[in-house]
Amino acid sequence: MTAVTVSEPAAPVPPVASAGAAERGRLPWKDWLIGLVLPLALALGWELAVARGWGNGRLLPPPSRILATLWGLWRSGDLIVHVLATLGRVAAGFFFGVLAGTLLGALTGYLTGARRLLDPTLQALRAIPSIAWVPLFILWFGIFETSKVILIAVGVFFPIYLALSGAILGVDRKLVEVGRVFRLSGWELVWRILLPATLPAYVLALRAGLGLGWMFVVAAEFMGASEGLGFLLVDGQMTGQPQSILASILAFAVLGKLTDGLLAALSRPLLRWQDSFKPEG
Q: Do 179 and 193 meet the contact criterion of CB atoms below 8 Å apart?
């Protein structure tokens, strides 16, 4: 007789949670708390070192003295004045830099003639250090707001331009050919194929441009500003108050992180269609 082998029933495969469900199950505030562990640990460690006499708190004041300086500026109302002045300059420079970078980046990425004409000059200008523009902008526009906003816009412009132009050139040729097979017009091709394909790189460029905007505002506020966080930096240097310098640096860090988080949150719905890699844990 032939033996009949009865196979065991296959074990059920557990369902795999979708990336969207995993994202919905995450608690955003947990990421913030984890991100605060390192800076809080460093701050507490330095506070303890100064309290025990292990470190010199004169040139690098402990966090308690820095927070006391910020609290004093807050109570006097000076902190709000300086923060609003800096935020206004960054916002204006970011707007004009993004506008120019988007227009020229799209133009040079989409049109070969425009790329051949404009890209070599723009790439050469990109290599010029930001501080080199300061005396020229002061000569042209004076030491008031116009020169400061233009300097910030220059810093924001180049990452936007470079990323968008490169992203358009990097779109998969087969996607464009499919659009042409379906007889999409030039505007439809841009809206339905090029725009979604370049959007992830463009959003990343916006965040990089915003970061450079915060860096350039310091150089901008060195140009004879009477208010702003950069002015606080210079004032702390001139009066020999390192706690004022570090308070300004801390304010820059907090504002930069908050504005970057806001930009990331606003752009997240635009990238919800992406089926991208989700890190473990």
A: yes
CB of 97 closer than 8 Å to CB of 265: no
Going by C-alpha positions, the residue among 218, 246, 245 that lies closest to residue 230 is 218
Classify 65-271 by CATH class. mainly alpha
The enclosing H or E element of 65 equals: helix 63-76
Query: What global pTM score does this model have?
Result: 0.83
Distance CA 78, CA 66 (A): 15
Q: Which position has the token pair 């706690």?
A: 243
Question: What are the sequence ranges of the domains in the chain?
Answer: 65-271
Alpha carbon of 187 to those of 110, 164, 180: distances in Å?
12, 17, 12
3-class secondary-structure state, position 182: coil
Residue type, 31: D
Tell me the average confidence (pLDDT) per consecutive run of 10 residues in the chain, 281 residues long.
Answer: 45 44 54 82 89 80 91 93 95 96 92 93 90 86 89 94 92 79 76 83 94 92 84 88 92 94 89 71 56
